[in-house]
Design brief:
The chain has about 240 residues and is of the alpha/beta class. Helix 4 crosses helix 5. The chain has one domain: Vaccinia Virus protein VP39 (Rossmann fold, 3-Layer(aba) Sandwich), CATH 3.40.50.150. It has nine helices and eight strands. It has an eight-stranded mixed β-sheet with strand order 3-2-1-4-5-7-6-8. Strand 4, helix 7 and strand 5 form a beta-alpha-beta unit.
Length: about 240
């Protein structure tokens, strides 16, 4: 039994910082269902809504949907959502959370292996694919890498570009860790955002681009200018409401 009114994180000290901000992560956290992985991986509610409102079209696919934080945001922004998650228990949590936020009828939750998805198994009118694959094996694990590349974010060994080539959709939205090597996006047409806090600390990058451009992304140019790539990203202050 999780003691939600306790200041001590029930999942252990590695998760304490996320527990301390739990009501920022989900305003209705005390009624929500959340596990340890969901606690540290979910997109906070207000920024999730900010990103969701950038989706065009009316139907989205949320890959690695977890406990449903981004699926909820997309649905609240008016999207019809297909949410795919491998862990059945987490899909159960996501369904509960969708009921809690009043958007259950807008989300088709599926227990499925994202690497086995294909156009034949999905709605034909999906417009936006949202990607937020695991950055590492636990809180802060991605920081063990000096930088993160697309190749570090594979799903069971499957490159995300190869996965997207099998799926329907016109655009891709993706959240990326703050140490991501953004030189791969240099000169690529896309909406490029850097979500920062009030002190200027970068929390994550966000990309919205055509699916065709995403699939065509090549290896980064080792000689590419990191500062030039950074200038292409607009800094966005993390929303709080």
């Amino acid at each position: 039994m999780i003691m939600r009114n306790s200041d001590l994180c029930p999942f252990g000290p590695d998760y304490q910082v996320y527990w301390d901000m739990r009501h920022y992560l989900l305003r209705q956290f005390d009624q929500a269902q959340v596990d340890a992985t969901g606690l540290y991986t979910m997109v906070p509610e207000a920024p999730a809504l900010d990103m969701a409102r950038r989706a065009s079209g009316s139907r989205s696919l949320d890959i690695c949907s977890g406990i449903g934080a981004m699926s909820l945001a997309l649905a609240r922004a008016g999207q019809w959502v297909t949410a795919v998650e491998l862990d059945a228990s987490r899909v159960g949590m996501a369904r509960h959370n969708a009921q809690l936020y009043g958007v259950a009828e807008r989300i088709d939750f599926r227990v499925a292996d994202a690497t086995q998805l294909s156009a034949a198994t999905l709605p034909t009118d999906i417009h936006t694919v949202f990607l937020d694959p695991p950055w590492g094996r636990g809180p802060g694990d991605y920081l063990k890498r000096s930088s993160t590349r697309l190749e570090d974010l594979m799903l069971a060994g499957l490159d995300l570009r190869d996965l997207l080539s099998r799926l329907p959709g016109a655009e891709v939205m993706m959240r990326l860790p703050p140490n991501f090597d953004i030189r791969i996006f240099l000169g690529v047409p896309a909406e490029k955002l850097a979500y920062v806090n009030r002190t200027g600390l970068l929390h994550w990058y966000f990309i919205r681009m055509s699916r065709a451009c995403f699939i065509a992304l090549g290896e980064r140019d080792a000689a590419a200018d990191s500062e030039a790539a950074q200038r292409e990203f607009k800094a966005i202050l993390l929303p709080t409401t």
